[in-house]
Amino acid sequence: MKEILNQLYEIEQKSIKNNITLFNRNLKRLFHDIEEQGFFIKNPLGEKFSESRTDIDATLMNSLGPESKITKVLKPIIYKKENDQLIIIQKGVAIVE
């Protein structure tokens, strides 16, 4: 399932980057169905990053400071809801500047 979710994330990001809105409705329906199965995808783009963060594997482009932010997300964070708890099934992979 992780592979499918990663592919959907990439399709969504490419359509956003190229301003293609033709698939928005279809993607929203797919993400809704996936969430009903207990999976959640999080795109942490623009969030602050610190060394204590455990949900991201990051490549640092500069030295880490208080203003370091996630500038590119290569893979999203994927959660699975089990017994009212969210469990990380995939850490995000990101570039931090």
Largest sheet: 3 strands, antiparallel
C-alpha-based Rg, rounded: 14 Å
Parts with pLDDT < 50 across at least 5 consecutive residues: none
Could you give the order of the helices and strands?
Answer: HHEEEEEE
User: Order of strands in the sheet with the most strands?
Assistant: 1-4-5
- What's the number of helices? 2
| Portion in strands | 25-35%
Give the % helix: 25-40%
Shape: flat
What does this molecule look like?
This protein is an alpha+beta fold. It has one domain (2-96). It is built from two helices and six strands, in the order H-H-E-E-E-E-E-E. It has helices at 2-17, 24-36, and strands spanning 39-42, 56-60, 70-75, 77-82, 85-90, 92-96. The protein is flat, with a radius of gyration of 14 Å. 11% of the residues are buried.
